[in-house]
Amino acid sequence: MTNLSTEQQPEGRFVKGIYLLPNLFTTAGIFSGFYAIIAAMKGLYSYAAMTIFIAMIADGLDGRVARLTNTTSAFGAEYDSLADIVAFGVAPAVTAYSWSLHLFGKIGWLIAFFFVAAGALRLARFNVHVDDETQDKRFFCGLPIPAAAGVVTSMMWVSHINKINGLGGHLALLLITILAAGLMVSNVKYFSFKDFDFKGNVPFVAILIVVLLFVAIAIDPPSILFIGFFIYLLSGPIYFLRYYLKKKN
User: Fold this and answer.
1) In which element (H, E) is residue 112 found?
2) Is there a contact between 184 and 126 (Cβ–Cβ < 8 Å)?
3) Which candidate, 151, 143, 24, 142, places its Cα nearest to that of 95?
4) Would you call 191 helix, strand, or coil by DSSP?
């Protein structure tokens, strides 16, 4: 997340500038998303998928760097949202359309547009409620757009790597794109993991699990990433169903 520095001078004037470090990470996210679009248009789908996940890393770092350096601002939030819609809205939609959805004609590009529009609406709703103290910070309202991009992109990547080019594979990507888009604009709750204490002590087994996770991703990045994002996508409806049944009983 980038920032706008506003400092009042003794004579009453305001000098404005942009903090460089967090701004670089956000710009890297936009660059990665734009590169993914170009790669998808050229048929380089693996490169497109990898750069979208690189954008996720940059998106995770910019906000943390801004908080650590005390450079957060409204400008940073807006710039970060613009980066997100490029990297996690337009880029996955174009990649999915170029690889598969174009086979469905008009329906295909309308579904790709639905994904982009849902992502934009999801970001707008998040920005409106980000400072609302009544919101439960443990949960997101709707599937976060990086997770939606992750499940669509990783599914396309798995299908492309394993040459799953039949009708079943294309239909599966179409349905998962619709599902991810719908969940973004839904009221389904998703864990935000904001209550995790990353600064505190953790058991030794936790570090071991993290190491094993990195090993698993290194062995088969597309499959492991798809499994992880798909489980997170399902976690919202499962939690909603459990909450509904508990409330009903």
Assistant:
1) helix 106-129
2) no
3) 151
4) strand
**Domains of the chain (ranges, CATH numbers):** 4-248 (1.20.120.1760)
Band of pLDDT at residue 242, cut at 50, 70 and 90: confident
Residue 77 in tokens: 């939030």
Tokens describing residue 36 = 């993914």
pTM of the entire predicted model: 0.86
CA angle 37, 39, 45 (to 5 degrees): 105
Sign of CA dihedral 15, 127, 145, 235: positive
Give CA–CA dist 214/199, Å, rounded.
Answer: 20
Is residue 8 helix, strand or coil? Answer: strand
User: Nearest-5° angle of CA 25, CA 88, CA 209?
Assistant: 75
CA distance 213 to 207: 10
